[in-house]
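thought: fold this chain, then report.
action: predict
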Amino acid sequence: MIQKIVCIFFLVSMVVASLCLPALAKAPEFRMSTKIPAGIAMPDKVETRLGTLKFFDGFPDDATVEKIYDNLDFQRAVQAYLLALAPVNMAGLREGLLTVGPANVTIPTFESNLNARSIFLTPNATTPYTWIWINLHEGPLVVEVPPMTLGMIDDFWFRYVTDIGIVGPDKGKGGKYLLLPPGYEGELPQGYMVVQVPTFESILVWRNMPVKGDIKPAIESLRKNTRIYPLAQAANPPSNTFVNVSDRDFCTVAPADYRFWELLNDVVQNEPAASCDPVTLGFFASIGIEKGKPFAPDEHMKKILHEAATVGDATARALTYRSRIPEAFYYPNSTWRQWLGGYKFESQPGVSYLDAAAFFYFYATGVTPAMEAKMVGQGSQYAVGIVDSKGKGLDGGKSYRLHVEPNMPVKDFWSAIVYDNQTRSMLQTDQDFPQVSSLDKGLVVNADGSVDVYFGPTAPAGMENNWIQTVPGKGWNMLFRLYGPLEPWFDKTWRLNEIEEIQ
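observation:
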């Protein structure tokens, strides 16, 4: 009996061995054979997030190639989306501003503080802005700037070009700037502050500073001292059109749908390739957006681009609202976010800080060292409030408090402004200005000099002047701004408290 069992086992073993022989067979040995290290060869079948990929000795089959190329197009489109947030953000600004009037000729100004009716990315509600769209396609442009402004020029890729005003070359005295287009080689006349702009189109924006709290002198100075005209017409400059855009119902925020790609294509077609880096332009070209060529994706590619725009927008929102970078937070064990990477968005010199750039360009407008560099008593600093003290999203149906400690380290003033999570513009409620500021008349200050700021659908009794209205069913975020920040802010010996939910 035992002998019979052994015999059967032997026969079964032989059958199994014969079935497995192809898999166990050694590769044929040839005179030039080399042992191939592990990890080089591709298996005939692999399971991935794309599904099953199949190969014949490393050669992909038709279904695998289709999956791979669809995935490659999608990956590159999502990365292109994130890289394009900056120029498309600018294109959105251009679209909105040009509804007011033509570039170079029109000087749109908020002659009173910008309110929630106008949709801009995280604007300031305490100082009136002037926004001017610059177009250098026809040649150099002269810009006469009034005294006592604070602003900058950013190119069409939303890169910092120069400051103007108080921290710019004119040092707040005003004067004539000469803006040169890419590749300009003409003679340069004397008497101008010369600025070489890398792109043909750009944004010139500044804040008009109130005089002892009164904005009227600044607006009068603006109208008297601001001129924009071609250098070729400097002897007899044409007139400009000043437009008061206060309380205006218009939008400068770019869309996040398929039209995003059309706006990007417009920037790529109209700006010199040398004004952007080859890798970024390579991402754009890989999805069909390349200078000098029509952007004409087929229906299959359009479908990929539609989805990539959705995922790109979702990615920008995750990077902005749910950061996984520890250094993104201003204090240890805090929820307050900060800008990272400086105005060049670099984690170290020559290394792009991709997540930091995507966060900023999704959320904010205007790139200048004055918004992030340590300048004690000058410029501004920002703390971004995205979540409450427990890390939960801020809910417009709930009530919250921010306790601002006494001895706030600012030379000028501070403000807290609430923004809509969807538009990143001021939250639209019954309040013109969803803001509480140390400049506000009627602000309730506690006996020790501290201030409590409240957020919610209704104001706590007696705290109406310290309250910012929110909307049930809507999420919100906020920027806490410091103007003229002092050393205790930078060395963190003064700390901003967390946003606390209250019952």
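thought: worth noting. Residues 323-502 form a domain with the Jelly Rolls fold (CATH 2.60.120.600).
final: tokens above.
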